[in-house]
Amino acid sequence: MNPGGYGGGGGQPPGYGGPPGYGAPPGYGQPQQPGPQQASYGQQPGYPQQQQQQPGYPQQQPQQGYPQQPGYPQQQQGYQPPPGYGAPPGYPPPGQQYAAQAGAGGDITRLAYEGTGGELFGKLIVGLILTAITLYIYMPWFMCKMFDYFASKTVANTPAGPVRFHFKGTGGTLFGKFIGGLLLTIITAGIYMPWFIIGLVKWGCENTHAQTADGRIIQLRFKGTGGQFFVKYLVNALLMGITLYIYTPWALCDYRKWFLENTEIVEQGQVIGGFTFEGKGGTLFGKFIVGMLLTIITLGIYYFWFEVNLKKFNYENTKIQLRGRTYAIAFNGTGGQNFVLQIVNSLLAQFTFGIYMFWGITNVIKWDCENTVIRGM
Q1: Which residues in the chain land under pLDDT 70?
Q2: pTM for the whole thing?
Q3: Which residues are bridge partners to 273 per DSSP?
Q4: Are the C-beta atoms of 348 and 360 separated by less than 8 Å?
């Protein structure tokens, strides 16, 4: 999921009455009804007053306006567009600065990723070397640095300006959580695992911050508990075992729904939004069956399309509520694009003895972000 401060919208722009995309230019009225009296359009700004007739041409009287066409309404004072006409999408009213209005369904937020393969190469190589030298003790610090790197290179371009992300967690805190969680999980023969996982989720949410263009800080907060997750995990595991794992798509939807709906969007300690998930296990089951069958039949080639279809299902069934508005997420990438991207990355990684892998990872993240769109509904 890629959450952030959003200004996107789910719906198509309002339809037009009359010819598509056409409307009267700002400042012009409609011609008058037929009759002897005719209205003048008046002097156009920036044009000099006509003083005299061109030599050799007969004297002409000034035009008083265009003749009235049958069916046009009487001209009113100022521009009054007839019903169904309006400015083309994206154009503000004359003399007004554009601002996203609550309830307007046309604002869109798009994600962008600004990281490079070279940066990722340097950070991963240094981190892996330090992790190996310290016998994995450095791992929590390495993970926090990578979380912050990926977050800081991701931008949500909203109608109100860019929103940038940061991860504030520290390696020392994560190290303590790892040690304590692993010890308790071992002592309790695995029973503590749900509490361990929820503890990490809470910590990750609390340390994920988004900064809006006007300097406001927004963060996530997870309100679920280890006990709730323990019960949910136990029930889903039993149902998957009883049904020989046929229940797996329903379990996945149940998990995603629970995690999203227990995640709040917070500003200065006040809840300003959250998430919902509308996906159904039956729909996901159908996608699983078709995707796996086609992947087997095509000797794995269809997997790239299958992967995109699952991503679309998760994104399109996730809704964001923020300050009283609902936002929908869409993924516009295709299986063909995914296929080409992954094949090229794999070939170049082989030719360069794995070095291109870092650039390949960067290309995949950029493609994913550039094809993720958030719209206000």
Answers
A1: 1-106
A2: 0.70
A3: 265, 322
A4: yes
